[in-house]
Amino acid sequence: MENIMEITVIIITSLLIIMGIVAIDYSIRTWIDKVNGSVVLKRWLIWLRVVIPIVAIVMIDLNYSDATDIWGRLTGYSVEISIACYFIVHVHDKLFVYATDCMAHVVMLFNISVYFPAVPNYQDFGRLLLSLFGVLLTIFINHLIYSYDVFKIRSRIRFFVIICVYSMSWWSILSLNQTISGYDLLAQMLASIVNISIILSLDLFFRKQLESLTHEINADFLTQIGNRKAFEFAFQQLFDKYEKRQHDWYLVMIDIDDFKKINDQFGHIVGDTALRRLSKEVNLQLYDLQLDASFFRIGGEEFAILLTHIDESHLPQIIEQLKTTVGRIDITTNGEQSVKISISIGVAKYQHHDNSAAVLYERADSYLYAAKKDGKNSVNYEGNKLIK
């Protein structure tokens, strides 16, 4: 009975630790998002996100190392593995990846020094090889997650397989510990999978709640795409992220041609319908093209798109497809009249001489104005007419 109570307390404590770690991480993420002016402060907060899990893992290890029951110590390892997996996925910082790689090596070397016998047999060598395999597999998965962001994959089965392999890799390292029975090893491997699933599920729950709240604040009331506030935040974030880096990204400004005439001639209901239809069709087109893009209504009939990870040679084709998509929109009025719309587009590519986000915005806005002066229904890219 005492053992059952002790195990229950250990499990509850583990869940509370996991929930606390997720809550603390979300608090730091919120602070990072709010810091716009100070690059130094933002970097310190990012470093804090790296340090906190390392400190947490050390504290958990010290706390559970005093447990009299082997299950208690193993549960501590399981929680540490879960925390390492969570932060490998979300911190996305090389320092934490390397720190986790070092932890894998340290755990293996510690187990060799304590548990590997002076006169080993073939079973001992088998455990050593399994532990070495676990280290290599852990390092491989760490760098795979960091390099390819595999936890954004849509397949739940593949997602679950990666969790299972990650848990197996760490417990393979710990297999050198001969005090751990095969039953305990398997049970804790399953416990780690459950813990990782819980911590990532908690993250997903918090993220959905945050996204829902953020959407209510940052969504345009009419079109349900990002509003001006959301654009300014995302634009500044993108500028800060890629400032002084060799990375191409673009600000695309869009304006509906003769929108005032549409409102005056057909009424504001038709005008509102035009705004909603354009937002919907452009959003669908960006999704179909699988572009890394964010779409916003920044005022009246003006829209903006932030495009990243785009090859410059593909840009004219992308813009042409967006322009064609809008040109196909046909709105029927109550009087059975057909209303067509067209757009003018100004495109600015981030340049290293753009010393602020405002400078880049002014360039894109001037290109949009030039496109409208060219007769509307046209595109101006970096001061040159692209499409007419």
Largest sheet: 6 strands, mixed
Distance between the termini: 81 Å
Order of helices and strands: HHHHHHHHEHHEEHEEEHEE
Radius of gyration over all CA atoms, rounded: 27 Å
Model regions low in confidence, pLDDT < 50 over at least 5 residues: none
Overall 3D shape:
elongated
Strand order within the widest sheet? 2-3-1-6-7-8
Number of helices: 12
Strand content: 5-15%
Number of strands: 8
Structural class: alpha+beta
Proportion of residues in helical segments: 55-70%
Mean pLDDT: 82
What's the arrangement of secondary structure elements?
Layout: H1 2-34, H2 39-64, H3 70-90, H4 94-115, H5 122-148, H6 156-173, H7 182-218, H8 228-242, E1 249-256, H9 259-266, H10 268-288, E2 292-299, E3 302-308, H11 315-327, E4 330-332, E5 338-340, E6 343-349, H12 357-373, E7 379-381, E8 384-387
Parallel strand pairs: 6-7
Antiparallel strand pairs: 1-3, 1-6, 2-3, 4-5, 7-8
Helix pairs in contact: 1-2, 1-3, 1-7, 2-3, 3-7, 4-5, 5-6, 6-7, 9-10, 10-11
GO molecular function: diguanylate cyclase activity
Protein name: GGDEF domain-containing protein
Keywords: Membrane, Transmembrane, Transmembrane helix
